[in-house]
Amino acid sequence: MTAGRDAHPAAGEGDRDRPAVQAIPFAAARRRVRDGARFCGLVAIPDQAGGGGGLGLFAITSDDGELAFEEHRPVDGAYATLTSDVPAADWYERRIHDLFGIEPVGRQRPEPLVFPVPPGARPPLAAGGDPSAALAPDPSPTPAHVHGEGVFTIPYGPVRSGVFESVEYLVETSGEDIPHLRTRIFYKHRGVDARFVGLDVDDGALLAEREEGPASVAHALAFSQAVERMAEAAVPVAAQLVRVVHAELERVANHLDTMVRHTEAAGQAVAYAVLSHHKERVQRLRARLCGSRFGRGVVVPGGVRRPPGLSPHGVLSEVGELQRRIDQDVQRLMDTPSFVDRLRGTGVLSSDDARRFAVVGPIGRASGEEEDVRMSRPYGAYERLGHRVARRVEGGDALARQRVRMDELDGSFHLVRQAVDMLAELGETGGWRAAIPPVSGRAVGWTEAAQGELLSVVEARDGRLAHVTQRSASFHNLAAYGSAFPKDIFTDVAFIEASFGLSIAGAAG
Amino acid sequence: MTGALLAAGLACMLAGVGVDLGLGTRSRVARIVPYLLGAAGSGCLLAVGVHATLSAPAMVDIAPLFDVGRGVLRVDALAGLFMTVLFGIAVAVSLCAASWAWPEVGRAHRRAAATGYLALLASVAVVVCAADAFVFLFAWEALTVSFYLLTSAQRGSAEAARAPWATVGIGKVSGACLLLGFLLLAGQTHSFTIAHWSAVRPGALHAVAWVLVVAGFAAKLGTVPFQVWIPVGYPAAPGPSRAAMAGIAANVGVYGLWRFLAVLGRPPVWLVVTVLLAGGVTAFLGILFAGVQSRLSRVVAYSSIEHAGIILVAYGVALTGLAVGSRDLQIVGLVAGSLQMVAHAVAKSTLFCSLAFVEADAGTDDLDALRGVARRLRWSGAAFGAGALALAGLPPTIGFVSEWFVLEALMQQFRLGGLALRLGLAGAGALVALTTGLAALAFLRVLALTFLGRPARSTTGSGEAGPLGRAGLAALGLGCLALAAATPWEVRFFALGLAPILPRGGVLQALKSPWVLQPVYHGFSILSPSWLWIVLPVACVAVLGMAALFSRGRYLRVRRVPAWRSATSGVAGASSYTAFGFANPLRHVLGNVLATQRTRQLQTAALTTSGDEGAELGVSGDVARTAHLESRTSVAEPFEAYLYRPAWKAVRTASDLARRLQSGSLNAYVAYMLVALVIALAVAAAMR
Amino acid sequence: MPWIPRGLREGIVTSPYPRRPDGYDPGFFGHVEVEPSVGDTAAARAAAGACPTGAITIAPHPGRVQLDRGRCILCGRCVDLAPGTFRADRGFETAAFRRAALVVPSGEPDDAELAEARAQLARRVRGLRRSVHVRHVDAGSDGSEEWEIAALTNPVYDVQRLGVFFTASPKHADLLLVTGLGSAGMGDPLRQTFDAMPEPKVVIAVGADAASGGMVGEGYAARGGVAGWVPVDVFVPGSPPSPFGVLHGIVAAVGLLGSRPREGAPDGAGVPGTPR
């Protein structure tokens, strides 16, 4: 279908004609983004998983908290690219091209992103493909993006110094500064989304947790909410509150993790020890609440698997103590000039770039993209809880992101305390879990993970999952990572990466 | 005897010129004979030099031989010292040049290149021996002509066209300064014999003469603001001739400075401070620009500027001594300068000679293209390594010893009273210290990233030197290293050679004991380069031995694994540090001095449709299918940008005006002449 | 510098493990224990059917129930469905020297073979006892194992006190911690990393993902564990294993346990089937 075009990149005339023949796809999405809506993603949903049928593309945009979907069905496996009007669609189009073989017309053959399919092989999720047949990605390098005197490429990864997830950053530089950085995430693409097909919804929640370990709760929650929306199930209030406790503690752990990595990069040994100890305390508290240090197995479609393992009073005193200590130590850290100087002005993501990539979560909030779906599209118990108004943070640098996270730590503790208070007031609960009948249909769920807005697009037939896309904030935000090095040099990379706080597992899928 | 040898040496040069001009460059024999004659002639002149130095303080007057009148050519100890150093090197360089000229491929053979080379050697000999202003100036201009012949040997590019222009231009400036200075001095003393000019009394004319003489010699040496010709001039010369220009001819500037120190007597203080600071700035700028060049010949050329600066600083110390009447300070400065001059001459010649073979082999002197060349060309690579270590100023090379001595000389500023001189010495000291650090960075870059790296392409090794060249390279390379061990003898030789300027006993004070150097003043600091040569290797062996011993042999059991690099699946294009990239931190940190300009531009090809990688590259909308970021980083020389370009523009404007003046009417001409006459009369009346 | 008094004020927070047992929180769910005596029951069958990774097998003949910890992701469903057979336990000393030994209760008590495997490993690591350099490679994890391994350097676990150091280059490493289910793209990098390590070297597969692929299992890009790419010496089950679990894997692998007799635990500690 596309071989001819690939062989002759100059054959652009035909390409340009194509959009004229068919209606321009995603016209509404393009218009909405132009008018200020935020692009949330582009999702491909095959009509039948693994079958030979067609496929629908859904452009998701968000305007004042309102999600909008626009479907387009590619003709002959191609559609007019959205990236020309919506730059943030770049990674999505590349991902869909890799996995489904759907060609965005009007751009150069997209550079492989999540899974470079070897020449001659069928994309794993393409019509007629077999998503369970082992396929080896083609690791051959793609041409450099930067040309010039003395320019060379430093491959940083996939096995990097330290305990990190596998990812390769290609720094194309003429030495020391970082004019351009590319991210190669295919190394750890696991094809998790494809593994949902055929599972029941309970197993689906367990798999969703494995999409992105540090955001296990958020993934299970987004997935469960999609299923609940499909089933029109009413989740018991108590369960909603418990979900808030787990989700917010997960946020606390993630934000502490970024701070720990900052202190490690800055060589602040004592601060590293102190903050990593705090993170360990949070993980242990989570384990005491549910048995898992990552809150796994707690959130299930319909509610939560079991009540917290600690009394409300116990949780309150633990959380109060934690907050007091973390507050003190983070404040002490922000009073340490040698630390703050390392973050200030480092890794500035301009508000223009943040806008262009529609960046979500703390990174977005540090660069002027303020949406927090806990408030703009409240879900579960968040509708009942009072939020702290987030402090406005300027700058878009690593320090601004650190400030946003400090603010969010406060907010999270505040939410946990409210939720636990309400749990205690509830007394007798109406159970922890609503029954989920065998569901059919299509629905979307969302949460604000520590990394940002997380979307779960779920399609089910008779209680079995037919398609799931867990659109992680890590995937969405990592596209902007290469733009965060305007004035930075190699030694800043560790700080900038830590301040993004993304999980490669979530990005690679 | 001396006269005969001198005549024989010059005759060899002349014969070489005849062979070159007569036979051209077609046959191998015709190509190498001139250089072999150059080697023979240099050998004769070396003998003259050694003899003259050792027989000091006797003066060899050889004028009668040429029958041009008494006192025209004479070889005293100072001339002997310089002839020994310069023609000792010239023998090795000539051998390299002969070896370089032997093969046909890879070399741009030009008629008159050998002529230029031999003319250069002959002019140097005559300048050093000249006792008379006319002979001196004649030889000085001949040197400029030889430079022209050498720098114009390669034609074809705009760069190549600029080289002879800049070289001759600055050469003319140098000659003009000397001519004016000499005329002033001759006018005062009514004599054209240089030695007689010591009778000039201090005063305004004396000061002007001082400035002109220093400027004239400094221009040849290549200090600010005259250094601009060096980075274009040296690389334009073919093969080992660059060594002759940098390692030999430039040092006649040093000779002139040394010679006139004794002739002119006490300099004005402001001149001393200017010399000190100009030297410091030269050294700093030279090494800074050497550090960011991407052509090896330009790296070495800029390093010559650095050395010119350091020598000028040492000269400034000697001038300081002269100005305040401290003989010891004069000695420290001149010994330091002489050591630096020898280091410069030997190391520069080594580098340019080995570079000739490297460039012939690789077809380019682009640093990134030369990667791993030491593995292909063993002899040239080894010689280059020795030279680069010397220029980096690392112990135990001659570069380390000389830079140590210069810094020690500058540290004597606490002995002075005047604030201006103290500040001048302190400022120069700071700049030289900075320079030595940058020198290590610059030459380790060349050595590690270029010469020792993994070979960039398949090996041919076709450019390696032949037996003669190997002998020359070995002599020069060993000179870079072993001369350091022989520093005490070098100082003793200086004591003889500097005798016409400084008392021999005073110079010998630089030796604390037979093997230990000190900066003349007793009890300040000491260094024994000879000992370094024993201690450093012994210490290395001892450490390795102890490690092997204490680990009970485990130290020697090596676990070998494949090279590791983050398990990448590879990248397109260059994937490791380029020499350009390694210098980039320097371009960042000293961006103000280097006037670093960085541009990043999205280049788009004609075939434009809509968004592609552009989204990732930072653009949306219409971008090309073959979009890429174009990254450029450039630097600009301050003197060129702020002095010569505006000056050149002014000259162009002035000449345009003059042309307008020229094409006037007859009446206008008559009017001009009338005006000129009136002005001349008025001036004459005022003078009276 | 306000940090130094701050650091001192905390006192000692470091765990005494492995010198003495650690009293880690009672709430933590470390592994699932199978009661061998109960056998085949309807509840056990229900549990086997509900297990999301198929980790529970019931042999038809003797009716023996076995749990493969290499597959178990600790969801706890079996414990809910068949509390008589399955018990949630808080111990973390579950590392095994062979993949088959992760299946509990073990088939035949082939202690001799197991002892031989241990002895071979002990011979290989004889030189490492006082200083072990560890390199970690993520071969397709979900990101949680990295958190738990990184936690080993926090003051609670503080592996440096045991002479265990994380190193940047595999050329300096003695021990390779591999996490993840073996994503197709990481096969070659993992192999390169392993090859770049000098002998003697030890490989520890961390997590159920690395042993079996865990919840994701196998697919076009998932290879169901890393054992096909590198020879694994020690398996640490868990999804993810706790930092103590990883630590136990390390100390078991390099014989730190064997070199220091521990109170309250038999010398066979860490060999599956002998939980405390």
What does this protein structure show overall?
The complex is a heterotrimer of chains A (509), B (688) and C (276). Chain A is of the alpha+beta class. Chain A has 18 helices and 14 strands. The two termini of chain A are 26 Å apart. Mean pLDDT of chain A is 89; it is low at 1-21. Chain B is mainly alpha-helical. Chain B is globular. Chain B starts with a helix and ends with a helix. Chain C is of the alpha/beta class and 276 residues long. In chain C, the strands form three sheets. In chain C, strands 7-6-8-9-10 form a five-stranded parallel β-sheet, with helices on both faces. Chain C has a three-stranded antiparallel β-sheet with strand order 2-3-5, covered by helices on one side. In chain C, strands 1-4 form a two-stranded antiparallel ribbon. Chain C starts with a helix and ends in a 17-residue tail after the last helix. Chains in contact: A-B, A-C, B-C. Chains A and C meet through helix 5, helix 6, helix 9 and helix 18 of A and helix 1, strand 6, helix 5 and helix 6 of C.
Q: How many beta-strand runs of chain B?
A: 6
Summing up helix and strand content along with how strands pair, one would put the structural category of chain B as mainly alpha
DSSP strand (E) fraction of chain B?
under 5%
Backbone CA Rg of chain A: 23 Å
The main pleated sheet of chain A reads as: 3 strands, antiparallel
Percent helix of chain A = 40-55%
What can be said about the biggest beta sheet of chain B? Answer: 2 strands, antiparallel
Could you tell me the mean pLDDT of chain A?
A: 89
Q: Quick summary of this structure?
A:
Helix content of chain A is 41%, strand content 16%.
Which characteristics define this entry?
heterotrimer; A: 509 residues; alpha+beta; three-stranded antiparallel beta sheet; 14 strands; 16% strand; disordered N terminus; C: 276 residues; alpha/beta; five-stranded parallel beta sheet; 9 helices; 10 strands; 26% helix
